[in-house]
Design a protein that fits this description.
Elements (H helix, E strand, L loop, with lengths): L4 H11 L3 H6 L8 H11 L7 E5 L7 H8 L4 E6 L2 H14 L4 E5 L11 E7 L8 H11 E12 L7 H12 L13 H8 L1 E8 L4 E7 L1
Parallel strand pairs: 1-2, 1-4, 2-3, 4-5
Antiparallel strand pairs: 5-7, 6-7
């Protein structure tokens, strides 16, 4: 059974202080989360000067990658519902002296995208949002023509025995509010409904993916 929104926020409040370190521990099982983040940001096709939105920005782990793409003349809007995660992101922004990052304390479902944005990203966050379809639809309407929505997240592979493997791996992901019923949520299918030229690139034996779609 998936956790309620408030329970998820509580999980990430408790995890915020050590989130960056604990997330990197997945490399020990071959889950190359940094590589998946880099692939997702590269798929955005961002340009210098773009206004960009990240849904579920967390502690700002993607900000260095995004800054390289949008440059100092671009604008990054980092949206997250957890105050403690945003506090860590704010420290990162201040440390790096990025003057073009705006942090927005808001649930993904309630965020109003600015019109004509140059790209939208969510990495390992959107599947936790029950209203993910509505979020993708709103983002698709806000994108400038030809610009991209990119989602990197977890999924259940289609090969035989994947369910058994998923149950075995679940204790590793449960500390981040991941439950097995989240496998019923398919953001890439929502992207296919609301966007064009949607591609799905499986990662980690199909347990993760990077999906890209254009407005």
């Amino acid at each position: 059974m998936s956790l309620h929104r408030d329970a998820i926020i509580d999980v990430y409040r408790r995890r915020a202080r050590r989130y960056d370190v604990t997330a990197s521990l997945y490399y020990l099982i071959g889950f190359r989360i940094g590589a998946y983040r880099r692939a997702a940001t590269a798929s955005l096709g961002l340009r210098h000067g773009d206004t960009f939105v990240e849904i579920g920005c967390g502690t700002g782990l993607n900000f260095p990658l995004l800054e390289r793409h949008v440059g100092p003349t671009g604008r990054i809007l980092g949206v997250d519902a957890t105050d403690a995660m945003l506090a860590r992101a704010r420290r990162r922004v201040e440390r790096e002296r990025w003057g073009n990052v705006e942090l927005v304390a808001c649930d993904a479902a309630g965020f109003e995208f600015p019109c004509g944005v140059g790209g939208i990203l969510s990495t390992f966050a959107l599947t936790l949002v029950p209203e993910y379809d509505a979020v993708i639809a709103k983002g698709a309407r806000a994108l400038a023509p030809g610009r991209r929505w990119v989602v990197a997240d977890l999924k259940l592979p289609e090969w035989r025995g994947a369910g058994i493997c998923a149950r075995a791996l679940l204790p590793l992901y449960r500390p981040f509010a991941v439950t097995l019923d989240l496998a019923d949520r398919h953001p890439w299918e929502s992207m296919a409904r609301h966007l064009k030229r949607v591609t799905l690139s499986p990662r980690f034996f199909g347990f993760a993916y990077v999906a890209t779609g254009e407005a």
